[in-house]
Amino acid sequence: MLKSPFGNMPFTPTISYILAALSIYDLEDTKGEALWRYNPNDTKEREIIIKDFILKDLMYLTYKHRFILITMLQAALKKPEFDFAKEFESDYDEYITMAWDETEIADPRGFFADIYRLANEVWKDDLQKASREDQSTW
After folding, report:
1. What is the pLDDT of residues 53-85, one digit of tens each?
2. Of 4, 25, 28, 94, which alpha carbon lies 20 to 30 A from 100's?
3. Vertex 80, ends 68 and 70: CA angle to 5°?
């Protein structure tokens, strides 16, 4: 089983893991200001948010970890009932404040579909490499 990048525990991410780069708790004056320059509902600006913040932030993960994330996202996108809006909710008990909350994202599913599409473009070689491997050996 693939282990967490930070320990010896199994890597079992959730969809919210993908949006970690958009959490600005106690970083409103720096990271928040940088993110708020963009409109997450504008197609071109959303692409910048995804490439420059979300995908870039996940580069600390190995290609195997990123493959698991994108496979999990693909499965969620296939479920019409999956509530992507809840992924943008802040959780102040867990010190998570999202740059934009669920009411500010016009199409949360579309936002995640764009993440999926762009990750497959940007990480194409790594995702193909992982797909050719026997994941049961991870």
Report:
1. 999 999 999 999 999 999 999 999 999 999 999
2. 4
3. 15
What span, in angstroms and rounded, lies between the C-alpha atoms of 13 and 45? Answer: 26
Partner residues linked to 10 by β-bridges: 3
- Tell me the residue type at 128: Q
Q: Which residues contact 25 (CB under 8 A, 6 or more apart)?
A: 95, 96, 97
User: Distances from the Cα of 7 to the Cαs of 3, 61, 110, 130, in angstroms?
Assistant: 7, 13, 33, 21
Instruction: Report d(CA 99, CA 8) in Å as an integer.
Output: 31
Sort residue 95 into left (φ over 0), alpha (ψ -120 to 50) or beta: left
The amino acid that residue 99 corresponds to is A
Which sequence spans correspond to the domains of the chain?
19-137
pLDDT digits (tens, 9 = 90+) for 5-44: 888 899 999 999 999 999 999 999 999 999 999 999 999 9
Q: Which residues contact 101 (CB under 8 A, 6 or more apart)?
A: 88, 89, 90
